[in-house]
Design a protein that fits this description.
29% strand, 195 residues, binds zinc ion, four-stranded antiparallel beta sheet
Length: 195
């Protein structure tokens, strides 16, 4: 079974490892692990580098940085699952590893999309998705982390940035369920030029 963003939780619950072999530490040797899947989802366009945290720290959001684009690896000896990604914080991306925490719940939604849209299309975009907060961008929280409390809505507003990257584009991170972000992606692809 290939592990993906949809079946990760089930896989972890069925394959709890005690990390007994000692292979897993802060310095992980890649060759001691085998790839068993990945958490990528290419159906909603540009990924974002926004991280999401739950208020009680019992959940891990796999649609946000850093797990949104990671490989899933497993220790060949003890079965400990490890997430492998590239730390993209600077000029040279560095390989990075996060151990799976079997006590946590890995959450599919909400996830994050980086949206970049032509200024001339913004009004129609707001109208199409009823994104009223975009009309008052100065009230949108700023930062590299979004905190999610009792999430159950269609979308939430927490953008890393809302700014004009040049005279023609407005860019921001949108936190919402994947289906919603897929619709956003399709709309922008049809009416603008999202890739
Ligand atoms: Zn091991």
């Amino acid at each position: 079974m290939e592990v993906n963003y949809q079946n990760l939780n089930t896989y972890l619950k069925d394959n709890v490892s005690s990390n007994a072999c000692g292979h897993v530490s802060n310095k992980i040797e890649h060759k001691l692990f085998e790839k068993i899947g990945g958490l990528y989802d290419d159906t909603y366009g540009y990924l974002s580098y926004l991280s999401i945290q739950s208020s009680d720290d019992t959940k891990v959001f796999i649609g946000a940085y850093p797990l949104h684009n990671c490989d899933v690896l497993k220790c060949k000896t003890c079965g400990q699952v490890v997430f492998f990604y590239f730390n993209d914080g600077g000029v040279a991306p560095r390989p990075a590893y996060v151990l799976a925490d079997y006590s946590k719940e890995y959450i599919i939604d909400p996830t994050v999309k980086y949206v970049s849209i032509s200024k001339e299309k913004l009004a129609a975009f707001i109208e199409a998705f009823n994104l009223k907060a975009l009309k008052n961008p100065d009230k949108i929280p700023d930062g590299y982390h979004a905190n999610v409390k009792d999430y159950n809505g269609r979308y939430i507003f927490n953008y890393r940035e809302f700014k004009s990257t040049n005279n023609e584009k407005v860019s921001f991170d949108l936190v919402a369920p994947r289906d919603f972000l897929r619709s956003v992606h399709q709309w922008i692809k049809a009416y603008d030029n999202d890739k």
